[in-house]
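Deliverable D4.2, example record:
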Amino acid sequence: MTTATGPEPPEPPGLRWLVPGLLATASVSLFLGLFLPFFHVRKFWIFEDAVSAVGGILSLFDAGEYFLFVVIGVFTIIFPISKIVLLSLIWMDRRLKSDRVRRLQIWVSHLGKWSMLDVFVVAVLLVMIRAATGMADMTVGVGLYLFTAAIMINQVASSIVDRILRVDEPQPGRRRSSRPE
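Output generated by the structure prediction step:
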């Protein structure tokens, strides 16, 4: 591809598939993490219950805890999915260097500032459940690990995309030359 300033520099080998691979891995991890058990609670050494993120959020709604339902639902489900979708759109349009890509990058930047809050919310819930269960034994389920991995992978993909877009932007005071140096 050729730009107004000359031929576009080639991407490093493997980068073409790295970000889509990270985003696909984050998507699968997030989906599984939301529906697989976050916690296993055993009461009186007999009764066992597995709680997933989605199940826990829905139980907040059923219990009439609408504020917590909305807050935890937004930070645990909506924000991570939105960030994956926005990063995918940016990655597909990255070569266009359009205003749309810049606007999407700003949105991802804003979401990124809140991205670890969902992990914090889950950690607070874990502590609250452990404190409230008393006679119950609680263990962390695979869903929590997958969910946390999805958030971290998403952060790595976001950092890579941000770095690529920053490298492609002309720096103030520096002019791109169309002739080789």
